């Protein structure tokens, strides 16, 4: 493919405001695209207006007022991105393709498409339906976000989803046709999680016996992610064996889950750490014995890749499409008894099964950024070809 000029639009990145899983995806994908020799411009929001080049990627950071609701904030962000895009286009030249991530930049992408006839690709990382626990929200904000997801799917030339589960979800909700849909997985930089540490030292620092098996949960404490299912499953596991459950993350279900643990009489066996910096999370990936992903809805499940990078087995709900059952982990139904069975199965086999190592082998083969960038470039190539045909630029 010839070298092209790419514009990526996102509300977060590793080098600006960082919120969740989109930030590493966008920044690391941008790095990989730039490494292939393409000119990559990333438009994102930050606390001040600033342009800089990071890993060969041109970052255009737009200062955004973060007051008000999320929809109001994204309206202001899109206005700022539009103005900055005009300036960059004037100085750098015409773009070949634009690529937005989730609903946040849809308004600016549609505005640019209308004014300059520039095609855009949209990656869905999740849906409003999924974030609400597989339920449609009946309040204004949820309806507006859902509308922008539909609009992005309708106006985009091509749509990327990160998993089969998410692909089927947006087909069902937004009626996006198969011919526009691509499935390209998320990824991580192999080796960024694995560390040489003494697991006993990490456990001891938090008042946990160094020989006690630890089950790790890390993510938003929200209905979608299912921490309450894990707490109830923990009570069933603890009737059979000693273990410690470490839950990292903040969210509207944290206090509920803490109260639930005390009500079930397992408060001392559940450590709720709240928000933790990256280094602490990485320490726990390496110190734990297994990782649990009990999500009710999981568009991808980046935590699974992080667990595999640390060579840890995974027990995941059947909302997670990445795990190969009894090979790289155990799949459970989205209910506590099934999750408890999976946890007991893995805990009984610690030291014998090689699920974590097999997951690591799969990670290196399928979820590296070079492979993901190459697949993304295929989408761009089709987008550009389709645009050229429609514009009459093909003889």
UniProtKB/TrEMBL annotation:
The keyword Nucleotide-binding does not apply. One of its GO terms (molecular function) is glycosyltransferase activity. Keywords: Transferase. Coiled coil: none annotated. Pfam families: Glyco_transf_4, Glycos_transf_1. InterPro entries: Glyco_trans_1, Glyco_trans_4-like_N. Residues 19-189 form the Glycosyltransferase subfamily 4-like N-terminal domain. Residues 213-360 form the Glycosyl transferase family domain. PANTHER family: GLYCOSYLTRANSFERASE (PTHR12526), PHOSPHATIDYLINOSITOL GLYCAN-CLASS A (PTHR12526:SF625). This is Glycosyl transferase family 1. It comes from Methanosarcina spelaei.
């Amino acid at each position: 493919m010839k070298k092209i000029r790419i514009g990526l639009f996102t509300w977060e990145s590793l080098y600006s405001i960082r919120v969740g899983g989109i930030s590493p995806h966008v920044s690391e994908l941008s790095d990989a695209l730039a490494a292939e020799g393409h000119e990559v411009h990333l438009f994102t929001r930050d606390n001040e207006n600033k342009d800089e080049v990071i890993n060969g990627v041109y970052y255009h950071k737009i200062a955004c007022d973060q007051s008000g609701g999320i929809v109001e904030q994204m309206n202001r962000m899109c206005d700022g991105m539009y103005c900055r895009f005009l300036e960059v286009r004037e100085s750098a030249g015409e773009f070949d393709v634009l690529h937005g991530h989730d609903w946040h930049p849809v308004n600016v992408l549609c505005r640019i498409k209308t004014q300059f006839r520039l095609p855009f690709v949209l990656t869905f990382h999740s849906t409003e339906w999924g974030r609400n626990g597989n339920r449609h929200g009946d309040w204004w904000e949820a309806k507006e976000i859902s509308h922008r997801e539909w609009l992005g799917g309708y106006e985009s030339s091509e749509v990327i989803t990160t998993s089969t589960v998410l692909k089927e979800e947006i087909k069902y909700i937004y009626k996006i046709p198969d011919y526009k849909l691509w499935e390209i997985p998320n990824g991580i930089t192999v080796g960024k999680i694995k560390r040489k540490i003494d697991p006993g030292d990490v456990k001891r620092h938090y008042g946990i016996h160094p020989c006690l098996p630890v089950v790790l949960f890390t993510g938003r404490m929200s209905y979608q992610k299912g921490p309450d299912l894990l707490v109830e499953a923990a009570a069933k596991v603890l009737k059979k064996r000693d273990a410690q459950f470490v839950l990292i993350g903040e969210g509207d279900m944290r206090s509920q889950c803490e109260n639930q643990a005390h009500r079930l009489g397992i408060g001392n066996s559940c450590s709720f750490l709240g928000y933790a910096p990256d280094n602490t999370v990485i320490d726990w990936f390496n110190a734990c014995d297994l990782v649990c992903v009990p999500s009710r809805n999981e568009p991808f499940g980046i935590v699974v890749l992080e667990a595999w990078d640390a060579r840890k087995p995974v027990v995941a709900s059947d909302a997670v499409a990445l795990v190969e059952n009894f090979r790289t982990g155990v799949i459970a139904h989205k209910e506590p008894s099934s999750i408890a069975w999976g946890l007991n199965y893995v805990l009984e086999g610690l030291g014998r099964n090689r699920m974590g190592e097999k997951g690591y082998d799969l990670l290196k083969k399928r979820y590296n950024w070079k492979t993901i960038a190459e697949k993304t470039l295929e989408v761009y190539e089709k987008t550009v070809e389709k645009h050229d045909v429609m514009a009459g630029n093909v003889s």
